[in-house]
Structures are given as structure tokens and as C-alpha cells.
Amino acid sequence: MPRDEILNPVTDVEREAVRTAQRALSVRETGLLDDVTKASLRGIQRLLGLPVTGVLDRVTADALERLRPPGLRE
Fold first, then answer.
1. Which of 63, 29, 71, 68 minimizes the C-alpha distance to 46?
2. Separation of alpha carbons 32 and 30, rounded Å
3. DSSP letter at 57?
4. How far, in Å, CA of 48 to CA of 66, rounded?
5. What's residue 7's pLDDT?
6. Are 28 and 69 a contacting pair, CB within 8 Å?
7. Alpha helices in 1-74, H assignment, sequence order
8. How far apart are CA 29 and CA 47, in angstroms?
9. Exposed, middle or buried: residue 74 (CB in 10 Å: 0-12, 13-18, 19+)?
10. What SS3 class is residue 7?
11. 17, 37, 41, 57: which is deepest, by most CB within 10 A?
12. Which residues are CB-contacts of 69 (< 8 A; sequence separation ≥ 6)?
């Protein structure tokens, strides 16, 4: 993830980071921060006691990675 937070993915790397988060959230992989993805991010942020922003930031991305089973981590 190149920036500390992704508000609007504009590069291929950012879109891939969003797709990775979407896979972890079990939502449709679009590479875009659509309404469903933002709502899912807010839900997991709330659940994990993180700042509830609906934005894919480094802290949220790291938390999603830790939640994935070891065999499915990148």
C-alpha cells in the first residue's frame, strides 16, 4: 500500500490494495472504494476498535491481513 490511506485509488498498486481488502471483507472485488466497501470497512473498523472512517488506511489494511488465515496471506 503506497500511501498511508487510500481515499480514491488512482494507481494500479492502490487498486490492488483495495481488491485485497475487498477479498478480506468478502465483498465484490472492484478495486474501487464503492459504498459497499466503505460500509464494510467502517464495520470492521468498529469491530476492531479502530477509528471508524470507511477509508482504507495502513492500520486497517494491516488488521485485515492479520485476520486472514496464514495459508491465505500474501
1. 63
2. 5
3. E
4. 12
5. 81
6. no
7. 12-25, 35-48, 58-67
8. 22
9. exposed
10. coil
11. 41
12. none
